[in-house]
Amino acid sequence: MKSKISKKNKVLSPGSADRSLRLAAVGTLEVVIIIAVLLAVALLFRTEITKFSKSLFESAFNTNYVELLKPTA
Predict the structure, then answer these.
(1) Lower CB density within 10 Å: C or N end of the chain?
(2) How many Cβ atoms are within 10 Å of 49's Cβ, its own excluded?
(3) Residue 28 domain flag
(4) Which positions ≥6 away from 49 have C-beta within 8 Å?
(5) Alpha-carbon gap, residue 37 to 35, rounded angstroms
(6) Which of 14-18, 30-34, 56-60, 61-65 has the lowest average pLDDT?
(7) Per the domain annotation, does 34 fall within a domain?
(8) In which band, very low, low, confident or very high, does the pLDDT at 42 lie, cut at 50, 70 and 90?
(9) CA 33, chain centre distance (Å)
(10) Is residue 41 part of a domain?
């Protein structure tokens, strides 16, 4: 009878809870490191990223092609 009760009331060992917390902490640390690296790259290449985005928006919102398509009289 005792074996049935002990199977139902399974108690986690202290090491298993500690292990899951450590794994969660490692995952959080990985995310923080990835964000820090992305921010560092963005700061290092700030001028290049700005130039690229300006040229991208200029080409996207360029309306000179409309005038080129108008038929001449």
Answers:
(1) C
(2) 13
(3) yes
(4) 42
(5) 5
(6) 14-18
(7) yes
(8) very high
(9) 11
(10) yes
Lookup: tokens for 47: 């001028």
pLDDT at 14 over 70: no
Category of 23 on φ-ψ map: left (φ > 0), alpha (ψ -120 to 50) or beta: alpha
**pLDDT at position 72:** 74
**Amino acid identity at 6:** S
Longest CA pairwise span in the chain (Å): 101
Structure tokens at 58: 């200029």
**What pTM, to 2 d.p., does this model score?**
0.48
State pLDDT tens for residues 20-38: 777 777 888 899 999 999 9
- Establish if 8 belongs to a structural domain: no
- Number of separate domains in the chain: 1
Contact assessment for residue 49 and residue 42, using Cβ atoms and an 8 Å cutoff: yes
Side chain identity, residue 63: T
Domain of residue 59, residue span:
13-69
